[in-house]
Specification:
Helix 5 runs parallel beside helix 6 and helix 5 packs parallel to helix 9. The chain folds into two domains: 82 residues, 60s Ribosomal Protein L30, Chain: A (2-Layer Sandwich); 147 residues, 3-Layer(aba) Sandwich (Alpha/beta knot). The chain is built from nine helices and ten strands. Helix content is 32%, strand content 22%. The strands form two sheets. The chain has a six-stranded parallel β-sheet, covered by helices on one side. Strands 1-4-2-3 form a four-stranded mixed β-sheet.
């Protein structure tokens, strides 16, 4: 059985304010929970309808499906819900290729970008303070465990760039150089902007190389690419050049 206080805590973690206050975030489903259990993240508590996880009994709550529905945010609950402790904020590693997100608001986009960073070997993801929280349940779900392998740091992007003038700064723009023809460094900060408005004017002034993903379709009527899709295309091109 899940107590009223437990239900209140778990459901409150949908909100960033509650996650910040309690220093906890929620993960649902066997696959997602298993991924994070194998990382350095610390389990706070587990609520499951089946004894399928190798975790201490003191942290396990065996519950009924009716109780699972009370704490799950999914229409079809997935066997288990776990609460993990939010790790301490880490100092960003500014070596190699770094992705920086300026005001990305969609949880699915951020989760996918975290997964892409993991896939393409990008260890640091810088986020502006108005980018969606990486411990939002939808972000965690979309990242598919990659949240544990990519260092996500929230800070003032402009200040970071100003404090590190030796690091090349690239950005994606509609009027930039053709990605497939431009010469650009294999390391540095690559800035991607908000889904609706792109990179802010403040950051645009600090970008030394503007890159564009050219359109190849006949109509040329597509306004822009989804930010996660653009990230995938650019990271793929960066890594291709490293290997050829």
């Amino acid at each position: 059985m899940v107590s009223k206080s437990q239900i209140k805590l778990i459901t409150s973690l949908e909100q960033k304010k509650a996650r910040t206050k309690n220093k906890l975030f929620i993960v649902e489903g066997i696959k997602g929970i298993t991924e994070i259990l194998t990382s350095n993240y610390k389990l706070d508590s587990l609520y499951t309808t089946e004894e399928i996880f190798d975790v201490p009994a003191s942290k396990t709550n065996l519950i009924k499906e009716a109780d699972l529905k009370k704490i799950s945010r999914l229409k079809t609950p997935q066997t288990a819900v776990a609460l993990f402790k939010v790790p301490e904020v880490k100092t960003p590693d500014l070596n190699g290729l770094i992705i920086a997100l300026d005001g990305v608001r969609d949880p699915g986009n951020l989760g996918t970008i975290i997964r892409l960073c993991d896939w393409f070997g990008v260890k640091t993801l810088l986020c502006s303070k108005d980018t969606v929280d990486c411990y939002n349940p939808k972000v965690v779900q979309a990242s598919m465990g990659s949240i544990t392998r990519v260092r996500v740091v929230y800070l003032d992007l402009s200040q970071v760039i100003k404090d590190n003038p030796e690091i090349p700064v690239m950005g994606t723009f509609l009027e930039g150089e053709n990605l497939y023809e431009a010469n650009f460094p294999s390391s540095g900060i690559l800035v991607l902007g908000n889904e609706a408005n792109g990179i802010s004017r403040e950051l645009e002034r600090l970008v030394s190389r503007k890159l564009n993903i050219p359109q190849f379709g006949d109509s040329q009527n597509t306004e822009s690419l989804n930010v996660a899709t653009a990230t995938a295309v650019i990271l793929g091109e960066f890594r291709r050049r490293e290997n050829y």
